Amino acid sequence: MQPGIQFSVLGPVRLHRQGVEEAAGQPRQCAVLASLLLRAGRPVSLSTLVEDVWGDEAPPSAVGSVRTYVYRLRQALSEQSDSFVRLVDGGYLLHIKPEDLDLNRFKQTSAKAREARNSGDLALAADLLSESLGMWNGVALAGVPGPYASMQRSVLSELRLACAEEQLACEVARGRYAEAAAELSALLVEHPLRESVCGLLMTALYGAGRQSEALTIYHTTSHLLRQRLGVNPSPELQQVHERILSGRFQLPRGDSRPIIGRNPTTPQALAQLPAALPSLVGREKEQEQLERLADDAEATSSVAICVVGGMAGVGKTAFATATAHRLAERFPDGQLFADLHSAEAEPRDPAGVLADFLQALGVRPEVIPETTQARGLMFRGLLANRRVLVVLDNAWSTDQLKDLLPGSPGSMALVTSRVQLHALVASYQALPLTLLPLSQADARSFLARRLGAERTAAEPEAVDRIIECTSRLPLALANVAASAVYRPQMHLTSLADEYTASGSSVLDAFTSEEDPVLDVRASIARSYRLLDPEAASLFRTLGAWPGTMFAASDAANMVPQSEERVRQTLPRLIHAHLVSEVGPGRYSWNQLVAAFAAEQAADQSRIATAFQPSGPELGLYDRG
To answer: What CATH number is associated with residue 594?
Structure first.
């Protein structure tokens, strides 16, 4: 036998001669070699090798191919063709020394580690198990095809996991809690349903003085077990949990160390709602709908979800915040709040929102999982058996929301969005609630509460003119009220004259340099930017329409496209709450939105004029 050849299966199949790696052949040849290596000392029939490599899909040429692979292996392994692979009893027998295969060395070293652990030498056991794990070079039999290799990969992966678990158990037993907790956290993310790893991690965290995190891990794993497998935690894991709660947990070793926080964890108060308006005008019916929804969720042990929609500036955030405060007492375990767009009006990554929520729930940053899915599972696990209200403002899509929704019965999610979230309604049975501009009476009441009833009653005609130019939009009304409050000596008639002055854009009156959120034009622009080029082009073209009501045929007459094509495009404007469908083929939009569309059309026309004849294409519906 040629000396000095060693084989590896704890990773890609490899062979080394005198420490130098040599090619083991193409993937199916490696599959044959793996089958012989893992059955070393036993003959393997030709038919078994065929089945190992191809399973039930072996081609007619499979037998000849296996014979070729064996021949090549003999050539690669030894100058004497039968030194390693011999034909015995009608099968092929691979003859190697046990120590020439890394799997055998792994098993031998692991066995010595168990002997050391049983004798009480935990340090030696931990070192030997670390040595065993160091023999791995990735996934066992990586890249090797065939059903036999697939089955053996699962077996060997379990061996590796058990070894890693045993090594970390030794570290915990030695009192090396902080070091073990870091590795166990990573291991549990990879194997979230492995209760033994969860129990070890809870022990390590408790030993490191991180009791609240240990309890968090337990609740997350418990939730996963019930959600995915429909089972409760094992009695052993429940016992670890109960002992940590009682503060009488006897640590395996090292319990003479000072342990921080042995008292049961007190859940942190969750009160993240922004300040609500002193009063909310004209939304009583909608608030009553949400109260009934919350009642139904409690009665049926379900999760209530409502998505509040409406055009830009209609007051979605103010409504959601005020209603959340009104409902807060129904959710004794707290309220969470997140704004789902960044300062640049880009969608926030749900992973970042979940990290904020988890820290609010008491999870230390270093324990928070890396992936969004894992964070979502931990989040729902922490909310298990708790009734909370989660307010998610300015959502962009259902995908952004799915990991942020609570899962515990009786909880509620209140979502606001400037687009229609059909998937949330269809898949999660969310209640869609669309806010409209205020009625004339409610708009009058809005101004009276802000400016004082005496001041508005003194100039009713001016109040009506202001309401008309604001299109009864709460954001525009708030801008007017703020201006009037700062000018208490000014008559409302003079203020109305300013807003309706000839030559000025109606949107100019409702701008805010201090806060873009309060700028009506900027608010509509955020919805406009959501449109695809074809819908944006139709939107600009409609800016030339003289009124706020139009038919699909009217829109078609304004563009060089068929009415059918226009009907296909209009739903995208409805989706962004820029246009409303008031009947079959009949549409309306707010005059402030119409004014914004006219501005965009004028801007586009100026751009086209400046760059003709080689300027950029303006869009499908724009005229040159």
So the answer is: 1.10.10.10
